[in-house]
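HUMAN: Please help interpret these tokens:
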Amino acid sequence: MTPNEALAELLALSAQVCDVAILGESGFVLASTGTVERGEQLARIAADLVAAAGDVRPGAELSRVEVSGDGTGVFLVRDAGRIAIATSAPDSIAGLMIYDLRTMLGRIDAEAAAPRPRRRKKESDDA
């Protein structure tokens, strides 16, 4: 599944998600909702959150960051070298947001990475 397909699936399933960006390993935007500028803004926010988390816990492996205030939130999940960052609707359920973002990241390229069944060789009648 491509990043755009995974993003579309997330938006179809989750009413809590407002804006989302999927970032590659170096922080470039693979897919996002809204304008290109909004995707780039979310990428900058993600970089700032990752840096701040690194300052709080140096050397720790970052897997998620949650920031909430005034009933809304920003959620960041890192998995397999990618980052998903999303803003949420008021009073969203944090655990569900994290689960949805992690699942979305896991779906990217999952079909291509899944092992294909092997074909059995046909036995010849020449034995």
The longest helix spans residues 36-56. The longest strand covers residues 72-79.
